[in-house]
Amino acid sequence: MSLKNRFIISLIFSLPMLVEMILNPLIGWHLPGHAYAMFALTTVVMLVAAKPFIDSAWAALKNHHANMDTLIAIGTSVAYIYSIYAMFTHQPVFFEVAAFVITFILLGQLFEEIVKGRASSALEKLLDLGAKEAEVIRAGKAQKVPIEEVM
Asked: Is 128 left (phi over 0), alpha (psi -120 to 50) or beta?
């Protein structure tokens, strides 16, 4: 699945929790089923959008290395797993933290991909502006030759 699609799915399933975070302090509104709804929404984010982070982190840990994906996977997985425990023990849950972290990281990666694409395109255009011919002096005469023939 492409980065863009993973971000869109993560955003769609995170937005209802964002709405709750905004409206709860103002008017006391909760998602229907509150913790269970947040569990369902975050589970989709974790299964679809966070899976590549978890897979990468697992591969890195097997090789006794750590990378940024390790940090993301551990942080979001701990928030998710703890929230499952908290949901069943009637404590505050933090499902939205796991979902939002994944969503924001994917947004950053999407921006990075767009910027890299634009930079590559600009570099190609810059290289196309380079000289195609060179003027060389051979046997006392200046003549134009393709740049590939210049030694």
From this structure: alpha
Residue 78 CA to residue 61 CA, distance in Å, equals 16
pLDDT (tens digit per residue) in 83-131: 999 999 999 999 999 999 999 999 999 999 888 877 777 777 777 777 7
**Kind of pairing between the strands at 141-146 and 133-138:** antiparallel
- Report the alpha-carbon distance of residue 31 to residue 142 in Å, rounded: 80
- pLDDT-derived band at 145 (thresholds 50, 70, 90) equals confident
Element containing residue 108 per DSSP (H, E) = helix 95-128
The residue type of 90 is H
8 Å CB contact between 35 and 50: no
Angle, vertex CA 65, rays to CA 64 and CA 66, nearest 5: 135
pTM of the model: 0.75
Q: Are 99 and 41 in contact (CB under 8 A)?
A: yes
60 by Cβ neighbours in 10 Å (0-12 / 13-18 / 19+) ranks as middle
